[in-house]
Amino acid sequence: MKSRLAPLPLPRLARLVLLYTRDDDFQNIVRQALSDTGTILLIARTVEEALQIVCRRKRELDVAIMALNEDCHGLTLLGAIHGCCEQLPTLVVVDKDSEQARALAYANGARFYLSKFVSPVELANAIADLEVAAPQLAVA
């Protein structure tokens, strides 16, 4: 199965993606999903690092990928990012899938939701879907 996430056409130099995770294995899956696409991955391991990236780069960010566990810090961060960058397409990936986690993620601004046990191809396709669904700004 081939990913639908294609390299960016010129003149756009690179996608800018925020990844919030503490999981090295998931970080590697994200790197595989985005390989050869011209994507710059900004990795945050703490809530503070993620907020710094969002505050500094909010208009430049194309996508946020957030790996959340069962604590409430990730949901609080998701809500803060959504409040700051309402148009930022956000993909939430959770350790333990549940209807409650799904509802909380969507209520806090997630546009897409997956279980952590996802392949690089599935993740790349979800990112491609996020980018297609994101509102496009026209130049006047």
Describe this structure in words.
- The chain is α/β, with parallel strands linked by helices and 140 residues long.
- The protein has helices spanning 24-34, 47-57, 73-84, 99-107, 120-133, and strands at 15-20, 39-44, 63-68, 90-94, 112-115.
- It has a 5-stranded parallel sheet, sandwiched between helices.
- α1 links the parallel β1 and β2.
- α2 packs parallel to α3 (73-84).
- Mean pLDDT is 83; it is low at 9-13 and 136-140.
The end-to-end distance, rounded to whole angstroms, is: 39 Å
Which CATH-level-2 architecture of the domain at 15-66 and 76-86 and 105-132?
3-Layer(aba) Sandwich
Total helix count?
5
Radius of gyration: 14 Å
Shape: globular
* Portion in beta strands: 15-25%
Tell me roughly what share of residues is in helical segments: 40-55%
Sequence stretches where pLDDT stays below 50 over 5 or more residues: 9-13, 136-140
Q: Topology of this structure?
A:
Elements: E1 15-20, H1 24-34, E2 39-44, H2 47-57, E3 63-68, H3 73-84, E4 90-94, H4 99-107, E5 112-115, H5 120-133
Parallel strand pairs: 1-2, 1-3, 3-4, 4-5
Helix pairs in contact: 1-5, 2-3
What is this structure, in a nutshell?
The protein has 140 residues and is an alpha/beta fold. The protein has 5 helices and 5 strands, in the order βαβαβαβαβα. α1 (24-34) links the parallel β1 and β2 (39-44).
